[in-house]
Amino acid sequence: MFFKKFLLTALAALSIVIVAVALFVKLPIEKLSLPFSDSGPVNSLTGIDGVDGPVFVVKIDDTKLAHPQVGLKSADVIYIEQVEGGLTRIAAVFSSNIPPVVGPVRSARISDIELLSQYGKVGFAYSGAQRLMLPVIASANLYDVGANKFGPKYYFNDPLRIAPYAMMLKFPELLKESKARGIQPATATSMGWKFGDPSTERVMIKSAHISWPASSYDAIWSEKEDRWLLNHNGEVDTDSDGYVLGPKTFVIQMVSISDSIYKDKVGGVTPFSATVGEGNCYLLRNGGYLPCTWSRSLAEEGTLFKDMNGEEIFFEPGQIWFALTSKEPVFTAISAQDATTTTRK
Predict the structure, then answer these.
(1) In degrees, to the nearest 5, what angle opens at C-alpha 322 toward C-alphas 117 and 128?
(2) Strand 122-125 vs strand 56-61: parallel, antiparallel, or unpaired?
(3) By three-state DSSP, how is residue 111 classified?
(4) Beta-bridge mates of residue 217
(5) Residue 339 — very low, low, confident or very high, per pLDDT cuts 50/70/90?
(6) For labeling, which of 189, 200, 313, 318 is most exposed (least CB within 10 Å)?
(7) Rounded-to-integer distance, Cα 163 and Cα 276, Å
């Protein structure tokens, strides 16, 4: 009896100590938990409740005719990449949530190979690729679950859309069939970024304008929704359900973009966005931005983010968007009136 009371007292004291540490020491929001608590699993990519499932990446068209896109609200991580003609295309990473349909699905590009290597051997869903790219994809560390491998039973054209902006993916059916074929993509794991409180050094803004030669996004802070609401090429970026797309964390990652040896079917030169190396970035969260740096020494390693003093920075839990661009963003400052009505979180 005495031992039981002693054990309960010790556990209570330990819980108080843990709570005190969490309150008075700045710790990242990751896996701090009370002993014997019933906290559920946390997804490594988003930092929110959810499982670490197999990683699948879908290439999505991002031209005007491809909007509204389908299924992006469920993605854990979204990359915006430059393609031919200065346009953009999306690589959407799915692990914790799988929507019934995703699209419009488009073709792979050379930048995808290096970019996605940090996630391990992912399942890569795409509509096709340039002829010279096919052996590169075949030799890459990924599972090809594209349209050429799986066909019209899983990839179909939406009759209400115009080709080539019409191809949709039946996502759950593809996952089931890929598993039946023995495909086992890498499970989501920590990619280098961490989650925690925002920096007090961030600059409060109303919006950020991110651009490429023939495409642009605006990230507009919504105090009401506590996230960035996106505009694409000057128009509100809604998905097929009318949901305005936009994350809690938006990273503008400055990269080197150069011409590759590849071309599209009309002769346009395919650009290559280098995501191995290092460079500057801007972390957008909680209504402000923080200048930062990124580094990734090997293709197989994740990307690390630090402030300009070399200290760790933290993302806010939730969906994350990365804009891979070589053009500096333009920030719109909040007015004096906005500053008095905005609650800094």
Answers:
(1) 55
(2) parallel
(3) helix
(4) 210, 232
(5) low
(6) 200
(7) 34
